[in-house]
Write a structure and sequence with these properties.
With 194 residues, this protein is α/β, with parallel strands linked by helices. It has six helices and seven strands; from the N terminus they run βαβββαββαβααα. 37% of the residues lie in helices and 21% in strands.
């Protein structure tokens, strides 16, 4: 007897790189946001499967699989695809939270779809899902003045204390935006949080 509904309603993916070395870097905005989300819900992302640290718990009235891929950023799609295939989650219910250098520090941008915009984690997820039609929340980290060659050092660099204070607030807003997407759809979240 098959259940009429999968055991998971939504997949919420925070992007980042595993390991202490990267823990508080700009590239780990997604990890830091879903860690805070789990903490707010009294949960820990302490299960291991789908090449991820994850847990399944209720959030925004839905049963959500919240994950941090442990593949390193550029292979994030491998983890996402495994969870999506296992639970048969449609792309429009795969919410990805990640850093964006094109936005000023702490600024949020909700999008229902879109290209990778040069973000390797998103590029890999699009490749593995075979579509770019999945919702995302981007968290601005700003960009280095020089751009170009300094970009790698920038994304794996640690924000200043002043930036960190702004970013922690943006993680909270990103969690609220995620709840809004799940409950009311992307359009409402775009109106409220962009």
């Amino acid at each position: 007897m098959f259940a009429s509904k999968s055991a998971v309603d939504w997949l919420i993916v925070g992007l980042g790189n595993p390991g202490e070395k990267y823990a508080h870097t700009r590239h780990n905005m997604g990890f830091l946001t879903v860690d805070l989300l789990a903490e707010q819900e009294g949960q820990k992302l302490n299960k291991v499967k789908f090449k991820s640290a994850f847990n399944i718990f209720p959030f925004a009235g839905q049963r959500c699989l919240v994950m941090k891929p442990q593949t390193y950023m550029n292979l994030s799609g491998e983890a996402v695809r495994e969870a999506v295939q296992f639970y048969k989650i449609p792309p429009e219910r795969v919410l990805v939270i990640y850093d964006d250098v094109s936005l000023s520090v702490g600024k949020l941008r909700v999008r229902p779809t879109g290209s990778a915009g040069g973000h390797n984690g998103i590029k890999n997820i699009i490749a593995h899902l075979g579509t770019q039609d999945f919702p995302r929340i981007k968290i601005g980290t700003g960009a280095p003045a020089g751009g170009g060659a300094e970009m790698i050092d920038w994304v794996i660099g640690v924000p200043s204390r002043a930036e960190r204070e702004i970013l922690v607030e943006s993680f909270r807003r990103a969690i609220d935006a995620a709840a809004c997407i799940i409950q009311n759809g992307c359009q409402k979240a775009m109106n409220d949080y962009n």
